[in-house]
């Protein structure tokens, strides 16, 4: 592995296998050609024209869209479409963070509809006399996704109806027992985005990177069963583990590479410096 | 002004007014339609086909290209094409930093040929008990470009044949009397890129951002006449001056906005957070 390999691994999507879907004139996401026949069973909801799918314009409000699509998704769930991943956790549907949501959609369905998911990913670090150290969690071995892999110190998806920083503070408490007053000191310092494909699912996601300098005597503690345990690693060990292995969950590598860049651990004279930094931010061009 | 206004101001180019030029199959830059007739006077050097200009394939090596184009540029200089800006400072011609240069070209000609220029831009800062402070220089009032404007602490163009960090160390000495041992502690922490047009000239440039934490008792001192003087400003004053004014040279605003992002001065819940961070990096898609 190398940093560029991680970027390529996160950006493995072949968009040629997908068609966009729209709410009015705004692109909401992408559906895989192999999943599209499922949409075609509901012409009252989805119509195909010009190589794209269009949600029924009769659904005039975000609430109406959310309700009608949810009823359809519940049918799919009952037919086993989402395995055990249904969470009753609504995500906002909007390609650009901050745009008014077109509707909401259950998290488990989001990658089937190639809707862009957002989330805060925080690196908790300690400045010790012997150098920078990072708190590295291992995901619980019974998590449904990526069990046992290494993770960012605190990370979560972004449900509808809560701010990014408030969501991070909540996740800091749940995942690492970081008290709210300390978690509020976390700082948004950038973002990473990528186009990840897993079979018919597309994750064109954007994670906002946060840094939090933690006191030397603070020890994060798993609180909600999502984390197996935390270890404090010298930054060099994190650097080498990211560079040389796939032990971290795939997208967490990008957040850590961004951390390494911002903290000056790469050289400007590395001939791949610009390619690495550029590769941390991928997007799909807006529709014409 | 706003941060997004600065991004738009740096990215004012209308690429529809330009045509690309190639060395073999590699794009070297862009020429404005109003400058293209000058190339057309030298069919031995430049041929136009498929809405693009192509340097003569008879020039097989970087040295041959450099020499032949230089002779042409000297003629243009003698006809007054470059005003007083000719510097005898060769730049490498390569769209991607780190690619083997296709040739070299005098700095004064670079924006006429829309060749991507590179350079290190460093923010020198001090952590004081009363908060972060930045060393802000004002450009000399008799500089040929942007006289009297505010600038990044140390910044320079990237001549051919020297590394970025070595170039920065040299500029640190010349522009701010920062000794080499201290300047070497500067860290590359990212880059900004933009597509700036000034009449027929195109600057599709990329500046590598460096941070250098300076000791509280160090005072930079103008050394080569390029800087009028330095002042130490609280970061809030720099933030407000960037946000609300055009006192800084246009591209220096992007370097400072990148600094503000990386140092956590923007909120993730600012609805323009992602747009601002994304806007700091613009590129032209590679040719098909």
What does this structure look like?
The structure is a homodimer of 288-residue chains. Chain A has 288 residues and is an alpha+beta fold. The first copy, chain A, is 27% helix and 28% strand. Chain A contains 8 helices and 14 strands. Chain A has helices spanning 3-10, 36-40, 62-78, 164-176, 180-183, 235-244, 250-262, 273-279, and strands at 18-23, 26-32, 46-49, 52-55, 90-93, 103-106, 118-128, 131-139, 154-155, 187-193, 196-198, 201-203, 206-213, 227-234. In chain A, strands 7, 8, 9, 10, 13 and 14 form a 6-stranded mixed sheet that branches. In chain A, strands 2-1-4-3 form a 4-stranded mixed sheet. In chain A, strands 5-6 form a two-stranded antiparallel ribbon. In chain A, a hairpin with a 2-residue loop joins strand 1 (18-23) and strand 2. The longest helix of chain A is centred in the N-terminal third of the chain and has 17 residues, at 62-78. The radius of gyration of chain A is 20 Å and the shape is globular. Chain A starts with a helix and ends in a 9-residue tail after the last helix. The mean pLDDT of chain A is 96. The A-B interface holds A 96-98, 120, 163-165, 187-191, 206, 208, 210-211, 261-264, 266-269, 271-275, 277-278, 281, 283 and B 96-98, 120, 163-165, 187-191, 206, 208, 210-211, 261-264, 266-269, 271-275, 277-278, 281, 283.
């Amino acid at each position: 592995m190398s940093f560029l390999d991680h970027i390529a691994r996160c950006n493995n999507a072949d968009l040629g296998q997908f068609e966009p879907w729209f709410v009015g004139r705004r692109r909401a996401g992408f559906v895989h050609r192999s999943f599209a026949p499922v949409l075609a069973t509901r012409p009252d909801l989805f119509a195909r024209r010009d190589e794209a799918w269009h949600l029924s314009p009769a659904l005039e409000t975000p609430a109406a869209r959310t309700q009608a699509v949810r009823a359809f998704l519940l049918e799919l769930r009952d037919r086993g479409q989402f395995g055990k991943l249904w969470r009753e956790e609504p995500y906002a549907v909007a390609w650009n963070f901050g745009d008014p949501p077109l509707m909401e959609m259950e998290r488990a369905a989001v990658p089937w509809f190639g809707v862009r998911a957002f989330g805060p990913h925080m690196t908790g670090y300690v400045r010790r006399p012997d150098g920078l150290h990072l708190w590295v969690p291992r995901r619980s071995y019974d998590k449904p996704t990526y069990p046992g892999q290494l993770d960012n110190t605190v990370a979560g998806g972004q449900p509808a109806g809560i701010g990014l920083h408030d969501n991070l503070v909540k996740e800091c408490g749940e995942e690492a027992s970081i008290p709210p007053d300390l978690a509020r000191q976390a700082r948004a310092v950038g973002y990473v985005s990528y186009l990840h494909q897993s079979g018919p699912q597309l994750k064109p996601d954007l994670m906002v990177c946060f840094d939090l300098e933690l006191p030397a005597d603070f020890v994060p503690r798993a609180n909600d069963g999502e984390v197996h345990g935390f270890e404090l690693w010298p930054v060099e060990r994190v650097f080498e583990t990211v560079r040389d292995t796939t032990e971290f969950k795939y997208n967490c590598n990008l957040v850590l590479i961004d951390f390494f860049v911002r903290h000056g651990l790469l050289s400007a004279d590395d001939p791949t410096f610009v390619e690495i930094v550029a590769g941390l931010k991928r997007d799909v061009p807006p529709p014409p």
